[in-house]
Amino acid sequence: MSHDKSAFECFGFIAFLWLAFIPIVPSALGQSDILFDAQRSQFRGSGWTFGAGAHWLRASPQESLSVLTVVNEIGQIDTLHSGHWNHQGSIGPRLGIGYWHVVKRPILWDRISVQLEGGRHRAESIFIGNVADSTNALIADTLTDLSASGMVSELTLRLHRAIELRPDFFLEAQMGLGWDAEWSRTFNRSGPSHRFVRRQTPTNHRLALELGLGFGVRTRAGRYLRIIAQTDALQLSPFAADGGGLIDRYEGKFRSAHITLNWDFLRRKPDISCAGKNLENETMPLFEPAMQRKINKRRRKG
């Protein structure tokens, strides 16, 4: 069943990519280069971007069944616990900075960016059910897993594609490869943990393929305002037990998603002067000093 679900999610991911980029390819060849000034007649072909938004670690699913049985010394089956896990993620702030470059001849993407973003997240899983006591009698009890990160840093290489709706307004599709690292992570398990299978501690580092979709507007001052929603589409390392973009957090599975408001800047090119860059500072002499003296002498005689 797990393999079937993993295959289904991978198929859904491939189908999403197909549907996302098929409408873009025909327009890529005819896309106007005015939107991002691809010929760089007014602005330089690169700039900085700053972002602020929210990070969401969402439980998927929010509830799961858990039953653990063993065979005792006399061949009888003992139930160590039986009940349900309730999983809950968190929503936290997110800040980022990046550098982006405009592709001169866009085909599938028109910009490439490298962005460093940071935030925090917290995951909690609570077991509610019956747990065996010292006499193997089942009594109502709870167990709580709590994990939290002091900071989560994300370094992502992204490909961007703008789909112009009207002058200065566009939709944006993104594909990125991100490396996440968790810092100052804490974990606490409270309750009858000896009646549960101990889960492996998640790694501090992850590599994931992400997808994003959003809306943007260009201002006349060479700035862009974009609001983008992004989510992990495929965890490359480590793979989650159920595949896809899910992150294993002890007993629970979570999906990372975020929405960000980005403010992009392009620097304007300096005006080109036929007289050269020193025109404003000094005047270039038309004749050499010796020639100028001869001309002045002739004027006095004439």
What report would you give on this structure?
By secondary structure, the chain is mainly beta. The protein has an eight-stranded antiparallel β-barrel with strand order 1-4-5-7-8-9-10-12. A hairpin with a 2-residue loop joins strand 11 and strand 12. The chain is rod-shaped, with a radius of gyration of 30 Å. The N and C termini lie far apart (108 Å). The N terminus is likely disordered.
The stretches of 5 or more residues where confidence is low (pLDDT under 50) are 1-8, 21-31
Mean pLDDT: 81
**Distance, first to last CA:** 108 Å
How many distinct beta strands? 12
Helical fraction equals 10-25%
Could you say which structural class the secondary elements and strand pairing correspond to?
mainly beta
Strand order of the main beta sheet, please? 1-4-5-7-8-9-10-12
Strand content bin: over 45%
Number of helices: 3
The arrangement of helices and strands along the chain is: HHEEEEEEEEEEEEH
